[in-house]
Every structure is written in C-alpha cells, then in structure tokens.
Amino acid sequence: MTTYDERASLVDVTTTAERVQRSVEGVIEGKPEVVRLALTVLLAEGHLLIEDVPGVGKTMLAKALARSLDCSVRRIQFTPDLLPSDITGVGVFDQQSKEFEFKPGAIFAQFVIGDEINRASPKTQSALLESMEERQVTMDGRTYELPSPFMVVATQNPVEMEGTYPLPEAQRDRFMARVSVGYPSPAAELRMLDAHGAASPLEGLRPVARAQDVDRLTAVVRAVHVAEAVRRYAVELVAATRAHPDLRLGASPRATLHLVRAAKASAALAGREYVLPDDVQALAVPVLAHRLLPTSQAQLNRRGAEQIVLEILHRVPVPDPARQARADAPDRRPPGLRER
C-alpha cells in the first residue's frame, strides 16, 4: 500500500527531473526527448552512449547534464595515444615512504564524459569495463570504490571511421542506452543562433540538483513495482532478438536487466510507482538496438538493428493491463471458490 512518504518521493523525482531538464534544454534546443532519455539513464544508474554526426551537440549535451548536477565532473578526450592508466590511475613510488602510492585517474569522478570514445585503442577502451559494471577500479591487487552517483556519458561519430576503433561488444553492452541527437528543426536552429551567438550558454549554467538528490531519487526508482507480466514481456522481447534470423548476435541478460531498470526510471519520471508495458516499448530501441549485430545479408538488405527491434515489438504480444492488475491483486475469495 502506498504511503504518503512514498508519494512525496515520487513527487521529488518528477520535480527534480523537471528542473534538470529545463536547465539542459536551455543549452540543447528542441530535443526534449533526448534530454528525457539521458535523465532516465541517470536515474536508472546506467551509462549513456551518444552517437551522431559532428556538430549536433553530443558533447554539449553531456556537459550541460553534468553542469546541471552538483557533482564532480571529469572529461576524457579519447585519442590513439591515450593509455589505460590515464583513465584508471597509476601507482607512483614514494621516495619517503618507500611504497607505491595510488594516483587516481580521470575515472574517479561522479560524472565522466568520454569524448570520441572510439578514437582510443581497444586496450584503452577496456580500462572502462570494470568501472562501468562494478563501479570500482582494481590496481596492484587493491580495489578502489568509485564515487556515487557514477555515470559515464560517451560520444562517438558513426560517420568518420578513419583513425577509429569500433567499440567491442562487451563495451557496448555496458551502456544502458544509445541516443542520437539529430539535427534541430529550423525554429530550434534559429533560437540556437540567438542563444549561442554572443557566448556559450554553458557559461551561465548553474547546478539545480545535488549529488545527494540523485542518490535519493535512484533509491525511489529501485522501489518502483514491476508486475510479473511486464517482467515476462521484457524477457520475451530480449529472447526474440536471440532467435531472429537477421541477427547474428542478440541481446544479453544484462540487456534485460537494463531494460527493466530504465522502464522503472521512466515510470518514476511519469509519477507512477509501477511500470507499464508502454514504458518497456518506448525504451526497447534505445536500450537494445546498439547491442545487436545484424547478419551480412540483413546489412545488404539495409535492415538495421532499430528496424528489427521495431518488428519484434509488433510481433511479441503485449500484456493485458487489466489481466496484469488482476494478477497483482490479492485473492480475497474463500478457499473453496479459488481456482485450482
């Protein structure tokens, strides 16, 4: 049964998210759905991959979100000569103590912006695997916890392939969602000329939420209810990617977990304490598509992963909300009248 405090916590989620969204939209014109997805990933305790052509505001979106939160922020410019120790840290020998002292790398921040992540070598990219999954860094046999909240927002350019290294499947699977910013509408581009003409709008951006607020709101998201029928629906969607003839690699069990977590965050942002099938459907493409590998024949037929996910959404039956509500309701009938 919902208590007053739980309702108030959901109100906190929506009001805080609205403040952050307004702050970011002051920099990113005409892309409310992109900002909403970034907030969903943040509250779901995931990581975001922003993939698009140059000049559409990928890094600007990441910076605006980071500056809207009173969190420690580090930016990593990924280049071919970047070393894993530049990200995780390195042990330095102290002449006085005669011991090695750990010097934390750029990953030790609450908000990490990885710019052009696919320009670093696979060895450097792999330095993020433990940090993104386990929120810790292991160095010289010792484990160092990362701060909370912790989110990696990485950008990459899918068009310019010269001098880049494609993200391996294990790396892409650790990003909860992928988003494309896209070109702005003519009206939004006109407003951008006014807002960005004299100075960068990032200069006047001030935090509208604290790190403690994010931790408190993510705890509310974890408590959002997911009915058995909705959980089965998410599992069936992911399982359908593994059996699809146009895919040589389907989504992993981690994708199922990310899909449900993102759906819980989406429900909380809508002021609901329960997840609907609509939440799962709305997030299926951004959460699943970047993990899938189409077959060569599908690529020749110009069938992308997004199109295949949409086909799966049309094919997998959606749970009946009324039946779902009845299944979740307690059975108050006398034992003799209950179904056997």
The topology string of helices and strands comes to HHEHEEHEEEHHEEEHEHEHHEHHEHHH
| Major β-sheet strand ordering | 3-6-9-1-10
The end-to-end distance, rounded to whole angstroms, is 27 Å
Give the helix proportion (percent range): 40-55%
Subunit arrangement of the protein: single chain
Net shape: globular
Largest sheet composition: 5 strands, parallel
* β-sheet strand percentage: 15-25%
The computed structural class is alpha/beta
Mean model confidence by pLDDT = 86
Specify the number of helices.
15
- What radius of gyration results from the CA coordinates? 22 Å
Are there runs of 5+ residues with pLDDT below 50, and where?
1-8, 329-340
- Strand tally: 13
Explain how this protein is built.
The structure is a single chain. It is built from 15 helices and 13 strands. Strand 4 (89-94) and strand 5 form a beta hairpin. The chain is globular, with a radius of gyration of 22 Å. With 340 residues, the protein is of the alpha/beta class. It has a five-stranded parallel β-sheet. Strands 2-11 form a two-stranded parallel sheet. The two termini are 27 Å apart.
Which features would summarize this protein structure in a list?
13 strands; globular; 340 residues; two-stranded parallel sheet
Indicate the topology:
Elements lengths: L3 H22 L6 H12 L4 E4 L6 H10 L1 E2 L2 E5 L6 H5 E6 L4 E6 L6 E5 L6 H4 L3 H6 L1 E4 L2 E4 L5 E6 L12 H4 L4 E3 L6 H11 L12 E2 H12 L5 H16 L3 E3 L3 H17 L7 H12 L4 E2 L1 H5 L4 H11 L5 H8 L12
Parallel strand pairs: 1-9, 1-10, 2-11, 3-6, 6-9
Antiparallel strand pairs: 4-5, 7-8, 12-13
Helix pairs in contact: 1-2, 2-11, 9-11, 10-11, 10-12, 11-12, 12-14
